[in-house]
Design a protein that fits this description.
This protein is α/β, with parallel strands linked by helices and 329 residues long. The chain is built from twelve helices and 14 strands. Helix content is 37%, strand content 26%.
Length: 329
């Protein structure tokens, strides 16, 4: 059973096509990743699925409900955790959760049981009566996750959920997300440009310039890169790339100030590489060389021709979920 289905989904802003004929399905209980640089169309896609933007054309259903014609049903079936903070800092953690419960008409007895369970899971029971303005960034994210799950949604949307958090806090946030996925059996649609977070997904859709570039499991996508990855820095990358192409028929990609090669048995190839660059009438000095297995970053570079832009998303592209939801309910 699919909890999300899109077909030829398009969203235009004037002459700009932000999402261009995107088609995919998310299975029940699946973690589904949307991977791409800022401005690729990830957040716009989520906004349409959450009924905050109307598609220009195409169709989409969430939890079996049409995002255009059954918006209220869709909203009742989803939880939202987006990149921009959406908590009321002047309220306590419990008050924020209670306000959310009122919006979704959660009965008092159900709320009492549910909120106790969720606060314990995200380790905020001791801080339930504290104002949110006293919380760290990681604590706020944990509270937003608890709030997004309060009404038992079928689908949880996570749009850059750990943006700006330190690695240790990001790790803990993912522990909570995975634990809740197993406990609740909900589907999770994740957008990110952190490569390590993509590894948590069952399947990943790579999107760039609003178009689907690739869709498969992380392991299969990495298998498309082929062989080991050698990263090389030399005194003259242009000549080095030309010499490697002439000698081994290998196309070296230039990414930033490095050359990247994909070869089988990289450990056996490196001595040949060094010998080729170091010999001849014009020896090329090698500043550094490293070997590793393919990563999701390599997949993205291969699919799109450029690296993920590891920059913070613009505030204009952020989704202030609760504000919009309250205004349009």
């Amino acid at each position: 059973m699919n909890t999300i289905e899109t077909r030829e989904l398009v969203r235009k802003f004037g002459d700009l096509t932000a999402v261009d004929k995107v088609t995919f399905q998310v299975k029940q209980g699946e973690i589904f990743g949307l991977l791409g640089p800022n401005g690729a169309g990830k957040t716009t896609t989520i906004k349409m699925l959450c009924t905050l933007l109307r598609p220009t054309s195409g169709t989409a259903t969430v939890a079996g409900y049409d995002v255009v014609h059954q918006r209220t049903k869709v909203r009742q079936s989803i939880g939202l955790v987006f990149q921009d903070p959406s908590l009321d800092d002047r309220l306590t953690a419990m008050q924020n959760l209670h306000f959310h419960a009122m919006l979704f008409n959660i009965p008092g007895d159900v709320f009492k049981e549910r909120v106790s369970e969720l606060l314990e899971i995200v380790e905020l029971t001791e801080r339930a009566k504290n104002e949110v303005r006293t919380f760290s960034g990681g604590m706020k994210r944990r509270l937003e996750i608890a709030r997004g799950l309060l009404h038992h949604p079928q689908v949880l949307f996570l749009d850059e959920p750990t943006l700006g958090l330190d690695p240790q806090t990001r790790h803990h946030i993912w522990e909570y997300i995975i634990a809740m996925r197993k406990k609740e059996g909900l589907s999770i649609l994740l957008t990110t440009h952190y490569m390590d977070e993509v590894e948590h997904a069952d399947r990943v859709l790579i999107i760039d310039h609003g178009q689907v570039v690739a869709l498969d499991t992380p392991e299969r996508l990495k298998g498309m890169v082929g062989g080991d990855v050698i990263t090389l820095k030399t005194e003259n990358d242009e000549i080095a790339a030309q010499r490697l192409k002439e000698k081994f028929q290998i196309e070296a990609r230039r990414v930033k100030e490095e050359l990247i090669l994909e070869v089988p048995r990289g450990d056996k190839f490196i001595p040949k590489l060094l010998s080729t660059l170091g010999n001849g009438t014009r020896a090329i000095e090698v500043h550094s060389v490293s070997l590793r297995r393919p990563s999701m970053d390599d997949v993205f570079i291969k699919m799109t021709g450029h690296a993920i832009r590891d920059e913070e998303a613009s505030a204009k592209d952020g989704l202030r979920a609760n504000v919009h939801m309250r205004r349009r309910r």
